[in-house]
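>> received
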Amino acid sequence: MKRFLILCMAVSLVAGAFAADETSAKPTKAEDRLKAGAEVLDEIQSAPDQGIPEEVLGSAECVAVVPSMLKGGFIVGARYGRGVASCRTPKGWSAPAFFTVKGGSFGLQIGGQAVDLVMLIMNQDGMKNLLSSQFKLGADASVAAGPVGRHAAADTDWKLKAQVLSYSRARGLFAGLELSGAVVGQDKDSTREFYGRMVPFSTSLTGTIDAPQNAYPYLNTLAKWAKSAAASK
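>> returned
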């Protein structure tokens, strides 16, 4: 009987060790979001003449993506989402910052569907708002629907019109999106999950810290499309 109990305990310990290994190897929700954000960028920019214009993407200071509920399970309805952002630095694209988007009028304009959201921070004023870790689109930062297509029309004033250009994709349709009233703030839970501690936007997005290796599914994809856009301007 004693030997049987010892054997059962040994089997339990071995099973627990395997379970712990599987748990540690499983990607976190933050890592899943980085991967989903990369897929959104790839799919949007790979669509002929239906992506973000090269002139626009090549000029963006920061790029933020909110994968949809259908892609990554991070949007509840159409008025709340979790996303990831990165900004240009002298060393390349910054370590990722995790954020939430809450409220706003976009839910009405997209009919309550879950969508992919893309936001481009176009200038230093917009970046200053982003680095504050919380701001309201349309109030603290001007926002406008971004132009769509391989190239932006010559007569558009997208460079001057808004600090943030926004886009949506639902059921394969990609278009500029009005996003006034939405509040963008730091996703503290995802930040702690990914970095193991709190990392302010002003630390991650300015290049103060290096990007962890598991951030590169998103950063490499972003760098690929930004480089292609810059070369085509």
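>> Strands lie at 62-66, 80-89, 92-93, 97-103, 116-121, 134-136, 143-145, 164-170, 173-176, 182-186.
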